[in-house]
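REQUEST ID: PR-0412
SUBMITTED BY: lab tech R.K.
PRIORITY: routine
TASK: structure prediction, single protein chain
INPUT:
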Amino acid sequence: MDGALVALSVPRSACQTDESGRVPHPFSSGKLDCVKQKLRDELTAAMKSGDKPRTMVLRGVLAEVSRWEVEKDVRREADEAAVVQILKREKARREETLEFARKGNRQDLVAQNEAELKIIEGYLPAGIGADEVRAAVKEAIGGGAQQIGPLMKALRDKFGAALDGKLASEIVKQELAGK
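STATUS: complete
OUTPUT:
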């Protein structure tokens, strides 16, 4: 086998990680995050199965991830938190488009955006429930926080990417108004 190229088959869908907790990517010198690799694997599967809506959504999300990685002329790898933020942004875009489609009485766009929204939601981590957010807000208010900014920061620190900012903001405003 001297001088022969040997291809190593690494099951990328298994998300094998190195010491830093990231997935090595065979085609780049950098590392690749498990969530991003899952999106790529799902895209390949959707393309093979002929699932056009899923293929379109995943291509769009991966394009946004690539755009994020090279924005501001700085090359960086998207970690799990960045990919989740991108997915949340794409979800918000679909929700906004859905709202306008409903106002315009465009049932074709409503159906398309609802389907895309379901696909995107399938890749987002499970959200935090309103009751849990409300309990954390009451705990923070009891600890002395009386303004929206510090309360939101405490919630982001506690829940991270799983926190729905819109829901949290509404609950914080309700709790502060109720005081």
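NOTES: The first helix runs from residue 34 to 49.
REVIEWED BY: pending
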